[in-house]
Amino acid sequence: MTTTEILNPFHEGERAAQERVGVGDMATLVGGFIRDHLPEQHREFHTSLPFLVVSGADRSGQTWVTLVEGPDGFATSPDPRHVSLDTVLGADDPLAAAFDAGTDIGVLGIQLATRRRNRFSGHVRPEGNGYAIDIRQTFGNCPQYIHERAVTREETIPGPAARSDALNENQIARIHAADTLFIGSGHPKAEGAARGYDASHRGGAPGFVRAASPTRLLIPDYAGNNFFNTIGNIVADPHVGLLFIDFETGGLLHISGRATIDWSPKGSHDPDAWRMILVEIDAVIDRPGAVPLRWAKMDHLSRRLKIAKKVRESDDITSFYLIPADDRPLDPFEAGQHLPIEVQIPGQRGTSKRSYSLSGPPQERRFYRLSIKREDKGLVSRFLHDDTREGSIIEAQKPSGDFVVPCSNCPLVLVSAGVGLTPMLSALWANVSQQDRDVWYVHGARNGAAHALRKEVNGLIEASPKLRQLVFYSQPGAEDRQGQDYDVKGRITAESLLDLGAGPDARYMLCGPAAFLAGLQRDLETAGVPLANIYFETFGPESRADASG
């Protein structure tokens, strides 16, 4: 694969969708996040899972999505460009014959208990007693709209598969009760690395997918990462596959059809939808008890928290101090983790879930602090900013996330832009008393009015000789003074990070918009920083950890 292909990984359908919504520069901005191999963290992630979600086409050209599972350790990765599967698909699986012949596929690895997910595409072929996958492209994803579930194994006897060309009443009822689906799409005629299939997760409140008729489904498309992999595939090739999992019985409901996009849905069943995917059903395969996996919702782990205080930190960022609504102590968290919350917004069907980085000291046990940016199109952030008051109650899960300080005493370079400062502030609190670690904090903001929590950061920097700070303003205001309010006019670059002199053992933790991170990550790697030493957390509209949704 050439460098150009890596930096411009989108096919014409994806580019058309991006252009339509005004993000036509995505290839330049995020090419560094799309690779031709699995990073080490992704290899460890995919091979730790009990199942993978896979999309592809059968030998007649119909697109399907299926679930591939096996015993613990069934997936291995002998090297960054290959994954091996020690399992075989059942004879009634819609992709079994294609796997046996060799075919292009898209793969989603998803850990419902922690809401982590990563994707890759490639070519699967028979190998030994299972299959081998040759990697083509890999992607990371934010855990939006994922309902947490814990997975267990249970002996099961699969029932006979039922095939039809339309949904029956029972299947429609199951779809209307579902809060999760997996969608597969592809562009098998695309050139280069963009060719192939994609498997993607969709989630929402129960009923978010609506059956308009036994042969037509309406699927809302929410704000996302602006890659438009699914939407772009549909623009180029309308064939799609859907998979609904019966989490209690292990049943799989497969649907194959053709999709179109309603770019401006009016009066739809879901007011949160930015677009609507309309699927005309061609074929249905219902496989009761198809897999020996069961998933249990983790809602019982949630608890009620009360907003004790709201503090405005900048023009568009407010901090929310949350305390227990009961007498139970708060669960501890590590610097860099986020807090999954759930709110009931008047006029909305069901509850809305988001995750926001914890910005307070991890050693603090009296409260959690979330510093949240108000986004004009952010349903939850607008509600929290505009409609909650001190004393308002929200539901929250335990803190989670793996964007944490990676080592005990290695040099650490914390880099953020905008509201990406939230996990970095928590990391500064965690290191303020550290005597054997050098820490540099590099932050970029538009100007002083947009620079949140700077007094708190300055206080931490002054409190420890091991903490140092470098501030960039891209558009300083008239009242901003260089050398006092900020250090450099412009944007953060890899060169400026390397000039810090953190050394070859330094770990770089990056948090900010995808466009900001992709260039930094790519340039750091080009300069010789090992990928294993770079950690990042990205965000976009309605995403998790920066609090932008």
Automatic annotation (TrEMBL):
SUPFAM superfamilies listed in its UniProt record: Ferredoxin reductase-like, C-terminal NADP-linked domain (SSF52343), FMN-binding split barrel (SSF50475), Riboflavin synthase domain-like (SSF63380)
UniProt-listed PROSITE patterns: FAD_FR
FAD-binding FR-type domain boundaries: 300-406
A molecular-function term among this protein's GO annotations: oxidoreductase activity
Cited Pfam families: FAD_binding_6 (PF00970), NAD_binding_1 (PF00175)
CDD domains cross-referenced by the UniProt entry: flavohem_like_fad_nad_binding
Protein name: FAD-binding FR-type domain-containing protein
Species: Aliiruegeria haliotis
